[in-house]
Amino acid sequence: MAKHLISKTSYIKGLQCKKAVYLYKHYPKHKDALSSERLKRFSAGHEIGFMARKLFPGGIDISAQIPATYDEYLKSTQEQIKLGKEVIYEATFKYNEVLVMLDILVKTETGWKAIEVKSSIAISETYREDASLQYYVITGSGLELEDFSLMYLNKPWNEIEKEENAASIFITESQIERCKSDLTKVHSEIEDIRRTLAGPGIPSIKTGAQCNTPYPCDFIGFCTRQESEIAEGLFENL
Ligand code: SF4
């Protein structure tokens, strides 16, 4: 079984707030409903991802495998690598109970290159942390990477014509040095998140600046209600 404890999403949540990752893993029912704005962003993200694939055509999409299970994704990824497939979309790797799905994996004459596509016009610190996590998992699982790049837009998505050439709208920036230098830090963050998730209860963390940095937290509704119930002496337990 491809049981995994931590995904990219839970790792980034764990960096933002230990209470957020605990709630995400143990009490997902407390998540706020997705706003229409976030749904639109997810949908744009998918379109941008497909646009980026045009720069690396002819790949196999691991996430389209049937049955659609992480076990199948992991198995299929290894099979495609062994078969010498040169372009793989959503290549899936697991290491140290962390599972990641990489947007584009490319085999060149000199080695494997990993590319993660972002829907924004700049690279944030969170994107770099995401890249470092993926590098940790992919190389830890046994695949040596010659490069790990982030690919992002050179102008906002709503200003891009659908017919535009993919080559003219993306910027690619290598993160390989940062990924290598972050290996120890990523390992220690994973252990920290693991300890949090194994803890006896929801971490006692008050709402604050972290609730909107780097992203608005999915649990703001729950935490705000919990705090007001505690203030009113109504909150006993979950
Ligand atoms: S709303 Fe704030 S305190 Fe609550 S889980 Fe999210 S980041 Fe943490």
Present the secondary structure layout.
Blueprint: E1 6-7, H1 8-16, H2 18-26, H3 36-53, E2 60-61, H4 70-83, E3 87-95, E4 98-107, E5 112-117, H5 125-140, E6 145-153, E7 170-174, H6 176-181, H7 183-197, H8 220-231
Parallel strand pairs: 1-4, 2-3, 5-6
Antiparallel strand pairs: 3-4, 4-5, 6-7
Helix pairs in contact: 1-2
The structure holds iron/sulfur cluster.
Iron/sulfur cluster binds at residues 16-17, 19-20, 23, 205, 207, 210-211, 217, 219-220, 223.
Task: Please describe what this structure looks like.
It is built from 8 helices and 7 strands. The chain has 238 residues and is an alpha/beta fold. It has one domain: Lambda Exonuclease, Chain A. A hairpin with a 4-residue loop joins strand 4 and strand 5. Helix 1 packs antiparallel against helix 2. The radius of gyration is 19 Å and the shape is globular. It starts with 5 loop residues before the first strand and ends in a 7-residue tail after the last helix. The site of iron/sulfur cluster has 13 residues, from helix 2 and helix 8.
Instruction: Specify Rg, calculated over alpha carbons.
Output: 19 Å
Give me the secondary-structure category: alpha/beta
Helix count from the secondary structure assignment:
8
Total beta strands: 7
Biggest sheet layout: 7 strands, mixed
Return the string of H and E elements.
EHHHEHEEEHEEHHH
CATH topology, what is it called?
Lambda Exonuclease, Chain A
